[in-house]
Amino acid sequence: MGTAPLNVQDLHKTYAQLPVVDGLSFTLEKGRCFGLLGPNGAGKTTTLKLCLGLTVPDAGRITLAGLPIPAQAKAARMRVGVVPQFDNLDPDFTVSENLFVFGRYFGLSRADIEPRLPWLLQFSSLENKRDARINSLSGGMKRRLTLARALVNDPDILFLDEPTTGLDPQARRLIWERLNTLKNAGKTLLLTTHFMDEAERLCDHLIIIDSGRKIAAGSPGELIAQHIEAHVIEVLEGVDAILADSARIPGMHMEKNGEGAFFYCQDARPLLNILDSKGLRYLHRAANLEDVFIRLTGRELRD
Ligand code: ADP
Asked: What are the CB-based long-range contacts (under 8 Å, 24+) for 274-282?
């Protein structure tokens, strides 16, 4: 396991006597995207910080880029790019200056970065923004620049903490496309996200954590097959009219949701027949990762 981009064994971290990371183990594979999912407060950001050596664990073993963390965190971080949850670009500098200044953290001079600048700007679709000020950029442009900045040191591993939060659908798609390009180029990605469609699209393997513990692991397809029925029928209103009939369908799993309900089943036809006969409005779709996430972590709000 010493050669895995990131290997985490039995990691523990407690804040104020509360376990925040509670025995986590996982391994990233080179050239793959690994998802770390969980509701708010599950311990994702703390796990990322522990893996980067920015927080010291109470117990457990971490190797990042083959180096022990936190002992050799500084050297390991030279091989890693980080896209933080919130943009922290320097508003006093232009797009290109932000890239040059960031390179200094890696001991890279302007002359080192200059030859890579055209590629970094092209990769982030910011060719025409080289000399633009940060506050003139859209949210999507800032995110793309943050991604380009994380690539300044040509890292092997990228940590992406909610990289598309706050972006419109077009901007998100462009980021997804770029992340796939990086993966195809052999980079290893560690992604946290609250968007299950994003995780389903990008992640080869993922874990779902809650209260600092792993509660599920697998590829998106494996998790869907293991944890949820194949069909979801969301009845939007008037669900009381079909409760008795639907309860007689074998293998039906129902969750009330206000005036409506979610029905999960392997065979959708019996319920669809009932709904059509009553003329009720519904949405019928294949089960997805969000259904798994809700099934495993519950519907209650986490603040
Ligand atoms: P997530 O990223 O999954 O939302 P976090 O790792 O940010 O979760 O937080 C997990 C828990 O640890 C939360 O209850 C949070 O309040 C707590 N926590 C995180 N950092 C600290 C800290 N520096 N001091 C005390 N508690 C913290």
From this structure: 274/242, 274/245, 274/246, 275/233, 275/235, 275/242, 278/238, 278/241, 278/242, 280/235, 280/236, 280/237, 280/238, 280/239, 280/241, 280/242, 281/235, 281/236, 281/237, 282/233, 282/234, 282/235, 282/236
DSSP secondary structure string, 104-124? GGGT--HHHHGGGHHHHHHHT
Q: Is the CB of 5 under 6 A from ligand 1?
A: no
40 close to ligand 1 (CB < 6 Angstrom)? yes
CB of 41 closer than 6 A to ligand 1?
yes
Q: In terms of residue numbers, what domain contains 177?
A: 6-218
Domain of residue 249, CATH code: 3.30.70
**How far, in Å, is the centroid of ligand 1 from the Cα of 41?**
6
Domain termination residue (choose one: 196, 218, 240):
218
Angle at 146 between CA 141 and CA 151, to 5 degrees: 125
Does residue 172 sit in the same domain as residue 78? yes
Distance of CA 249 to the CA centre of its chain: 36
What is the full DSSP assignment across 271-292?
A: HHHHHHHHT--EEEEE--HHHH
What is the CA 286 to chain-centroid distance, rounded?
21
Is 204 in the same domain as 279?
A: no
Nearest protein CA to atom 6 of ligand 1, as residue = 43
Kindly report the number of other CB atoms within 10 A of residue 239's CB atom. Answer: 22
Q: How confident is the chain (303 residues) per 10-residue block, as mean pLDDT? A: 86 96 98 97 96 98 98 98 94 96 95 96 96 96 96 97 92 95 97 96 98 98 97 94 94 90 96 96 96 91 75
Q: Which atom of ligand 1 is nearest to the CA of 43?
A: 6
Number of domains in the chain: 2
Q: Residue 68 is encoded by which pair of tokens?
A: 């022990």
pLDDT tens-place string over residues 38-64: 999 999 999 999 999 999 999 999 999
